[in-house]
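Sample entry (237 residues):
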Amino acid sequence: MNLKEAVFEATAITKTYDMGEVQVHALRGIDLTLYKSEFVVFLGASGSGKSTLLNILGGLDTATTGTVQYKDTNLLHASDKELTNYRRHHVGFVFQFYNLIPSLTAKENVAIVTEIADNPMSPEDALSMVDLADRMDHFPAQLSGGQQQRVAIARAIAKRPQVLLCDEPTGALDSQTGKVVLEALAEVNNKLDTTVAIITHNASISCIADRTIHLADGQIKQIDINHDIRSPQEVSW
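Predicted structure, serialized as tokens:
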């Protein structure tokens, strides 16, 4: 019996896109459970379905069939308003490209989220958690790529989300900068008990996760449990 608290339970989910006369089957019957405080890597090549799955878990897209349960909420049957509230209050997103507002400082970029959240941490605390306390008054153009990505992480975690979903967060970074970003994500996972899910094509990142979920052709092919979790600095890029 698994005593861990389930955050997501997905059952037999499919996603089909109609492209004119052609149907694209992005997901082909996914069964998946993610747990509170878990650190998970979704690993697969381009076209494997990992981005589609992440978007469905985050309420950015809906499954064609199946059940997607977030705690007591069935996301498949949620209204647009309910999905908006779900994204606003429960989920943080980190993307490959930082999507920062150039005319705002790091602190102001984070404050955009804290102003609409129910129980946010302060922008200062969020930036301190990703080791950017000394850069909070800098504009994005004054920050390196890794620093900008950490601002994006601070923005995502400032509302204290239950789940942090990350789409190739190190994809645009060099190896050493990528390790710094992974350290920030591991810190969030440890200190906030946030469930962190990363999608990537970089297999080496798997060593820092509790589980690695391998996807191909819209299906889960294999799930590896990591009994020897490494620090981000031990990632062999």
